[in-house]
Write a structure and sequence with these properties.
Elements: H1 6-40, H2 43-51, H3 53-79, H4 83-110, H5 112-120, H6 126-138, H7 140-145, H8 147-155, H9 159-183, H10 187-210, H11 229-278, H12 280-283, H13 285-299, H14 303-330, H15 332-338, H16 346-371, H17 375-397, H18 407-430, H19 446-449, E1 453-458, H20 462-478, H21 483-503, E2 510-516, E3 520-528, H22 536-539, H23 548-553, H24 555-563, E4 566-572, E5 575-583, H25 597-612
Antiparallel strand pairs: 1-2, 2-3, 3-5, 4-5
Length: about 625
């Protein structure tokens, strides 16, 4: 029995598609606006939409800073079964997002003229840019706080609701663009208003779903405040820094490309940037789907699960990126016609396609470091990928004419090389310590090297459970545990897996971790399905109300609760996590058990189950 990826592959796959759609919240609006504006108004208006891109990314910076940081912290607290703290971060993000959004709206409407002149760089496109910016500023609040329900619906495992949110964004924006541009002839302001209103409609639906009866993040005015705002900003900084640097990079590249290739080149760049933004559903969605799970695993040093998630990300990301790049190249003529471009765009699309593979690697890497408390390293990777190398490469190639587009793959390659160099420094330094770190992910594998933990996966059948119990006994012997301690661990596995399998007959795979530390021993069980805590009946004092058959079935659970030093259950990201620890050398009431009663109890219950069948 080894740790396999069956359980995590299923959970990651269940989350991936909804999260990919959630990343499209802003980029799909820009793409739809660009197509409608190009067809209705012309290439100048299309270039103006791209010039407004930095403004939209600055707005997204604020939203992702709050929602991204709060969701990481909430997932960690939920993994520790500290739901009150988890909900507190949610309410802090909601309060700050609403307040900052209102302040930014007022400032933006007042400064719309100077901002438009700056974005358009004093060109003849200033009027188009002003109309688009004014409507965007007017509806800024829902754009900022829309990230909050997206991130928290993911924590609740509500993939269908995320898909519906994105359906609202796409559908409402498409319909309103058609009405505002063709029906009412509102021009650039109408295109921006369509984007803002579609986000507002999606935001309303998302918060409504979080208000449902069994939601862990229902609104509670008593929890509103700014507690934990520093931690939220810290953990949200990599995403926010990335968005801010994207905005600054886009502003500088717009100027450089306009001067090097003229208005025609600026229009091509607008299309490339829109398609690059669309690809974020892969390069950002793939790591974002795994981020909360990695944060939970890292908090308990479960490195085997982290490595499985990293492999799953790379497999899914490379497959999806390859399909997207192939589609771009095959439909290059259609893209040219859709955006009314005068020249073929196969070469620029090829350069963009190659760069997307490097983008994926860097995004997965930086997101991983963000989820594992290495914030500075994550920000360094983001800075190289989003700002330093793209601008440096574009500046050097700006005199090469059409070959300027090669700056995209060149900057991506340099970012991967630079990231490897940045990671190599702490990895090399750690070799002089008792806890050397792995070369790529900087994980501390001390527990695995010393044989203090055992990770494996099983299909929870009676035979597999018995085999798992025997393997755990060998692990306990190897760690010099006394017979009573060994019996507790073995009995806990047998009893809990049987009870959980009974409650969820469709359960296909369970991930197990057994640990034997100096001060304590214990187990951690992870499985999918509906929320189920086998100890909840005892906590609520309901066992006296159960019939004799049920009392027999839960007798082992009752005994384990009296034996354990600590028990906790959490349900987050659609996963049940049950944790139980025992004092290694301390004394605890044994509830009348001797060292052979655990196996006898399991046998008795199994016989009772077979008799019922």
């Amino acid at each position: 029995m080894l740790r396999d990826d069956h359980f995590l592959r299923r959970e990651y796959g269940r989350t991936l598609i909804p999260v990919m759609f959630s990343v499209l919240a802003g980029t799909i609006n820009t793409l739809i606006d660009s197509a409608f504006v190009a067809q209705r108004i012309g290439n100048d208006a299309l270039a103006a939409v791209n010039m407004c891109g930095p403004l939209y990314q600055v707005i997204c910076t604020l939203g992702s800073l709050l929602a991204g940081g709060a969701s990481i912290l909430s997932s960690r607290e939920a993994g520790r079964d500290e739901m009150e703290k988890s909900r507190g971060y949610y309410h802090t993000a909601l309060l700050l997002g609403s307040a900052f959004g209102a302040a930014a709206t007022a400032a933006g409407l007042w400064l719309c003229g100077p901002v438009s002149a700056l974005l358009s760089q004093g060109s003849g496109l200033t009027g188009y840019v002003y109309d688009y910016c004014f409507a965007t500023f007017a509806g800024l609040i829902p754009v900022v706080i829309a990230y909050i329900p997206l991130y928290y619906l993911q924590l609740e495992g509500k993939g269908k609701e995320i898909m519906i949110m994105m359906g609202i964004v796409i559908g409402v924006d498409f319909v309103l663009d058609a009405v505002f541009l063709y029906g009412l002839d509102l021009g650039m302001g109408g295109a921006a208003a369509a984007s803002v209103l579609s986000m507002a409609a999606s935001c309303v639906y998302g918060f409504f779903m979080l208000q449902r009866e069994h939601s862990a993040y229902r609104f509670d005015a008593r929890l509103l405040g700014i507690r934990g705002w520093r931690e939220i900003i810290k953990y949200g900084s990599p995403v926010a820094v990335g968005n801010f640097l994207d905005a600054l990079r886009l502003f500088l590249l717009n100027s450089l490309i306009l001067r090097a290739l003229g208005a025609e080149g600026a229009a091509v760049w607008a299309v490339l940037n829109s398609l690059s933004e669309l690809s974020l559903c892969i390069s950002s969605g793939v790591p974002q789907a795994a981020g909360p799970m990695i944060a939970v695993f890292h908090s308990v040093r479960e490195n085997s699960g982290i490595r499985i998630l990293m492999r799953l990300q790379m497999r899914a990301g490379l497959a999806l990126t390859s399909a997207y790049v192939l589609a771009l190249l095959l439909f290059s003529r259609g893209i040219q016609a859709l955006f009314a471009l005068p020249k073929p765009v196969f070469l620029p699309l090829l350069c963009l396609g190659i760069s997307l593979f490097f983008e994926l690697i860097c995004s997965v890497w930086s997101s991983f470091f963000n989820s594992t408390d290495q914030i500075m390293l994550s920000n360094i990777l983001v800075g190289m990928k989003r700002f330093l190398f793209p601008l440096a490469a574009a500046f050097v190639l700006s005199v090469s004419g059409e070959l300027l587009w090669a700056f995209l793959p060149v900057s991506g390659m340099l970012s991967v090389v630079g990231g490897a160099a940045a990671v190599a420094v702490p990895a090399f330094d750690s070799r002089r310590t008792d806890h050397p770190l792995s070369g790529i992910l900087l994980l501390d594998d001390y527990l695995e090297r010393e044989g203090l933990v055992l990770d494996f996966s099983i299909a929870p059948s009676e035979q597999n459970i018995c085999e798992a119990s025997e393997r755990i006994r060998d692990f306990c012997i190897g760690n010099h545990m006394d017979p009573k301690g060994m019996n507790r661990i073995s009995m806990a596995i047998e009893e809990l897996l049987m009870v959980m399998k009974e409650a969820n007959p469709e359960m296909k795979s369970v991930d197990l971790r057994v640990f034997a530390l100096e001060e304590a021993t214990g187990i951690r069980i992870r499985c999918a399905g509906e929320r189920y805590d086998p100890f909840e009946r005892r906590r609520a004092g309901k066992m006296a109300e159960e019939n004799e058959e049920t009392e027999l079935f839960f007798l082992g659970v009752s005994m384990l609760q009296n034996l354990a030093q600590e028990i906790s259950h959490s349900y987050t990201l659609g996963m049940n996590t049950l944790y139980m620890s025992f004092l290694r050398n301390g004394k605890k009431e044994n509830y009348g058990l001797d060292e052979n009663d655990g196996g006898a109890l399991a046998d008795r219950r199994m016989r009772a189950g077979r008799a019922d069948q």
